[in-house]
## 1
Amino acid sequence: MVTLADVARHAGVSSSTVSYVLSGKRTISEETRRRVEQAVAELGYHPNARARALAARRSYILALVVPLRADSHEPIMMEIATSVTVAARQYGYDVLLITNDEGPEGVRRVALTGLADGVILMDVGLDDERIPVLRELGTQAALIGLPDDRAGLSCVDHDFAAAGAMCADHLADLGHREIAFVGHTSDTRHDNPTVVGFRERAQERGLRFVHRASEGNYDSTAGTFARIFADRPATTAFVVQNDGAIGPLLNLLRTSGRTVPEDASVVALCPDRVAEQHTPRLTTVSGSYQDLGRVAVEQLLRRLTAVSRGEEPTDEQLLLTPTLTVRESTAPRV
């Protein structure tokens, strides 16, 4: 079946331009209009009349695609979802929740039935399979997460590279020179932005570090802990980007005769509420999940406003600056 995206590629224009030509919502140059109409004729494209009719009116509902998986951190996901709902209501919109297990078809269903004016995708991956559906249907969307191809999209995420650099700076300022970075076994990418940011700053500051992974349980963390000290016995500080590994790591440090922070400093990349649950309370580098939801709503509404005025939406990519909160788990190297 020929799609709107096929027509756009054939005509050498954006999907939104094809939509404007077909709907008449915006003045398009005669040359561009002819190219689009010729592409429609050559490809035999037949737009969904019901979808076009539904798109002509506003529902004042935003669809939010929420990940509900075994490996997702549900408290964080719900915090973002709550923030989206609160921000949407401030602008007179309601929120329709779509679970991620519906995948691209869930996004397609919402777009074609006109249930929502736009879509907010959470937990966006580098090559997210839902994004082609948005482009194909010309659906306005805001993404929480940064895909590889961001053309025609508005996105917001934490600045993970800056977070990694903050961890390195904080520990370097305290005099630490041998540092271990403990991450997730599920994240084996060499381009993990947090690790990249940490590595680059560590090299600038003359730090030696080792990057090891844990499954987030006690046995896995114990194995990681043993390998770290076998390879780098002079390690005096840890950066942890794995909530499940924090408790086991603190316990392993205690049972090995190392006191936190006198003998080993620990910085965690985790929400503040997680940091406050541990003893000692953890120094953290973190970002606001409420801000992620709020910014995504504002980005989507700006796109919808532009379309309603017959204008091309502006693509926005925003990285939110993280915050370093110093607590009891870091101290100068003795």
Note: The chain has a mean pLDDT of 88.
## 2
Amino acid sequence: MSNIAEIKNRINSVKNTRKITNAMYLISSTKLQKAKQNLKRTRPFFEMQEREIKRIFQTEADVNSRYFYPPTGRKPAETYAYLVITADKGLAGSYNYNVIKQAAQEMKKHKKVKLYVVGEYGRRYYHKHNIPIEQSFLYTAQNPTMHRAREISQILLTEYNEGRVDEIRVLYSDMENELTSTVKRMKLLPFERKPFLTPEEEKDYKDIHYKFYPSVTEVIDQFMPGYIAGFIYGALVDSFSAEQNARMNAMNSANKNASEILANLQLEYNSVRQAVITQEITEVSAGAKAQKKARKGGTK
């Protein structure tokens, strides 16, 4: 049986750990709220950009752009670029594992793959397993900014425009609700040729004709970098929000486990302490009886 000193040390150790996990829970909660506010402020602009691309697609049936699949004669892609967004650290449940696992499953489907990684956890994982990384973005995945998103989009667009990759895909985590997050796999480029607008929107725009200067293709070429950067920024913020949410849940579970451990340790401590007190009382009582007996023997 453990002695009292050992149990008290374990209790103090668990209490100190619970203080850390509780602090991490509060920090993640604050960061999550901030990330949600940033995304809420910027999302309307990028949603409007997407809507304008949809409008071009509806009003101009014969758009000839490298950013769209051709209506006919589509060739299968040979080289795929994967942008995998992870966190900078663990302690977030299965957040990083789910992204890396999904990325591995997707990349196995293709012979030629170029890997681009955001997040220190992902970089360390791929280096440890000797998986080559085409480009590792060395800045932190914490607090994503539009400036970083533009840097990433510029590198990916250069690879795409110069023909070194045929298709760009993004894997990131998206927070569905306060309890669960899912890994999303999005095809960034090229776009599929299919109706984008809802029937109501299509009815509003079918009789409207626009003039594009100098041409539709050049308008799209100027418009696309901003749209791609906005999409990547949204993915970074969604992933960051999912990370903080996963860490909150992990730290909340850790706090509950710590409370259960403390309750069990307290019961064990009380039991051991009671046993020690009982033993001391027994020893005192036995000593008193022995002295009483000795005094009676001396009197005779």
Note: DSSP finds six helices and five strands in the chain.
## 3
Amino acid sequence: MILYFSGSGNSLAIARQLAEKLDERTMSLYDALDADLLDEKRIGLVYPTYWLDAPMAVKQLVAQLTLPKKAYTFIVITCGALTNNAIWSVRKLLKQKDIQVSYSHKIRVPDSSALAFGRNPNAQAWKFDKYASRIDLIASEILNEKQRLHFSGFDPFGWLLNTSAVSRKVYRFTLPVVNPDKCVGCQICTKVCPQTNIHLSTGKACIGDRCTMCLSCVHFCPHQAVEVAGKTTLAERQYHHPSIEMHDLIRR
């Protein structure tokens, strides 16, 4: 079983590609909370890197999961470039459950948070061709149950950035905000938010306090009403993985 968390579809696409090569099924981490996984022989976790760490939601969900202790467990993360503590922090959570991660690796994909820094994620499509062969390598090593941990070490800077005192200030920079003048209340953002953290108030979308900063609301809003870093979202810079549609990301 491959469990995934995905905002713009990158991690879901990688999870599906690995599942096909490994003859496994995929399931969102949210659905996994209510699933019986104890008979699974192989457990994979696929999720993105946010701010040099695993997403807040991923850490919260993994902490609640009931997983088999003897399964071959692996982690594959997606990232724009750096991984820092994205694998280490989840390995630490699993170790507290007496679960050993046997394998880890990363796949570079277009950085969906790039628009916060004035860059276009769609200009990074070259990563798909460059790192396609790595998916084959990862699948082959998992099939052979390799004991190999890539990109899984501890990074002190990533840890410092995600301490509560620092993260409150840093996260504020990329926290998505709804522009009420552009919002038409179509509710698309309420559907794609993995945290179910967006609701309507007087016909306008409002973002709650459980944002994990996946920016799905930013990328899928058809009216570019959700802004980040104080900037208007340009339609040509909205991004989602080309094989993933909005309906794939809506929580059932």
Note: The first strand starts at residue 2 and ends at 4.
## 4
Amino acid sequence: MIRIRADQFPSILLILLTILAFAVFWSIMDMVLLGASLAIVLIPLHHRLSHYVKPWISASVMTLAVLGVFCAMGLITLAIFSANTTTLTQMFTVIGDWLNNPLTNPVAYGVPLSKVTLSGLLQEGTGLFVDYHKTLITYLPVILFKMFVFFFTLFMLFLRGEELRLKILGHMPAGLKKYSTRLSDATGDTLYAIYYVQIAVAVLTFFMAIPVFYLLGYGDIIFYAYFAAFCELIPIIGSSVAFILIGTYAQAIGDTRGVLILFFLGYLVVSLLPEVYVRPVLVGRRVKINPVIMFIGIVGGLLTMGLAGFVLGPLIIVLLITSYRMYTEEKKERKASSALED
């Protein structure tokens, strides 16, 4: 029978309360996890800045800088979408008419989706890309609260993250510290790779999409390329949404050539290739893990945990494999030591 020492009760209670907090506040845990993951990536920069100013000033400057980048990107995106409202409205109107026509909607071609489902998807797309201002106003309290949670988490971990890490390590047995340090390093490498690759793939998508939309011949080339890159930057959307949407518009206006271009060059090359090959290879190379395994972690995380899975999926895979490697290395060391003693 396992006996629990009196000095272990506080730690056990803390773990149980942490699990309970995750369960109760799961709806905002994605913001906590994303804030924490970004803080881990940026903490080295915070430490450098702290050499010149007080830590709380550095934490404030870093948090405000991230807020400034987010606001700048948001304003640029809103300006671009506002300038192309006519294009988006026309696209969704044509698709809506096509779906409502019994002779042309996908159900007539044997697509296993009901008209209600298709109309719901179209309505969601309209809310996101055409009536985005109404969507923002409707969900403004939720958006502001989640933003507060994200930036508060970011600020507090800039300010107290290193202190918290040292306290946790200080309460660990000496033998466990080595493993915790290695897992901590693996976590930092993984998160750095995730964010770096996410931005790199979005930029790559923009430049790869330009010749595709040039061949398409609909005009607004830069807007369509930015639209694909913007969707790619948001993990739970991806650039495939942009190509499927524009491909549906091409089908609705009877442009078979456009559908083929968007499917083979847009969807398969610009959208699918980076997701299946470029992203897993770049992240896997950083953490020295097979790209196929990383692909499973990235996609599996998004499918099972949504936005939080963008970070947790590959991170769990990395920590699991790193733990296995440490176990096998320690086992080999014990065998080598036993052989020397014999």
Note: The radius of gyration is 24 Å.
